[in-house]
Specification:
alpha+beta, three-stranded mixed sheet, 5 strands
Length: about 200
């Protein structure tokens, strides 16, 4: 994830969270139990406040466009949220990697599938001595590549030795395939649980 997109996501979440907290505090201030505990200088809502009385509702109903406008605004909000979630879900994984130097891709140039490269790195990692299972995900964009490798170690294997072998073999080959781009690798180790022994 790029720094700009990450900062934008954090800003959106911060603003949304702040609005939710302020709205919750404002609504909670209408109850007596909360009002007694709030500082005297803090503004609070009147518990008898009427947000939309009958007269105001009748005035809005006199305009035929307002119901359609509210429905359209809510629909746009839902669609925008769904599009943002879909973009975030798809933007993380690397889909295609143009072969050749960055900035030199032309229409019709050969590209390498990110899923195929991840599968090849995963096969190479699983062939490493001491590795029981391995999962590889390629994230980011062609100019900012990250390999997220999760390795399950065989029982009794030292992680240090496996890390050296992975760095020398699987990760080195992935970096050579992505050259001249830089590939940052994150390797996470897991230990396979021993099967419980049954006593007879």
């Amino acid at each position: 994830m790029s720094g700009l997109r990450s900062a934008a996501n954090r800003a959106v979440l911060l603003v949304t969270g702040a609005l939710a907290v302020l709205g919750g505090v404002a609504l909670a201030s209408t109850t007596d139990a909360v009002r007694r505990r709030l500082p005297a200088a803090l503004p609070r809502l009147d518990p008898d406040r009427v947000w939309l009385d009958g007269a105001a509702l009748d005035r809005w109903r006199a305009h035929g466009w307002w119901a359609a406008a509210v429905i359209a605004a809510l629909a746009l909000g839902v669609l925008a949220t769904a599009a943002w979630v879909a973009y975030e879900a798809r933007a993380g994984r690397l889909r295609h990697l143009p072969l050749g130097g960055p900035g030199h891709a032309r229409h019709g140039d050969v590209t390498l599938s990110g899923a195929a490269l991840a599968a090849a790195v995963g096969d190479r990692a699983r062939a490493t001595p001491g590795v029981d299972r391995a999962r590889v995900r390629l994230l980011g964009r062609p100019r900012h590549l990250r390999a997220h490798v999760t390795v399950t170690l065989a029982p009794g294997v030292a992680p240090r030795a496996v890390l050296q072998r992975l760095t020398r073999d699987a990760i080195a080959e992935a970096r050579a395939a992505a050259a001249p781009r830089t590939l940052h690798a994150e390797i996470h180790f897991e230990v396979r649980a021993h099967a419980p022994r049954r006593l007879r």
